[in-house]
Amino acid sequence: MPSVSTLTTADAALLVQLSDSHLFAEADASLLGMNTRDSLGAVIDLVLKQQPNIDLMLATGDLSQDGTLESYEAFRQLSGRIDAPARWIPGNHDEPQVMLKAAVKSTLLDPVVDIGNWRVTMLDSAVPGSVPGFLAEEQLILLANALSEAPQRHHLVCLHHHPVSIGCAWMEPIGLRNPEALFAVLDRFPQVRAVLWGHVHQEVDRVREGVRLLASPSTCIQFEPGSEDFAVGSQAPGYRWLRLWPDGRLETGVERVVGFAFTPDYESNGY
Question: Which CDD domains does the entry link to (predicted)?
Answer without folding.
Answer: MPP_GpdQ
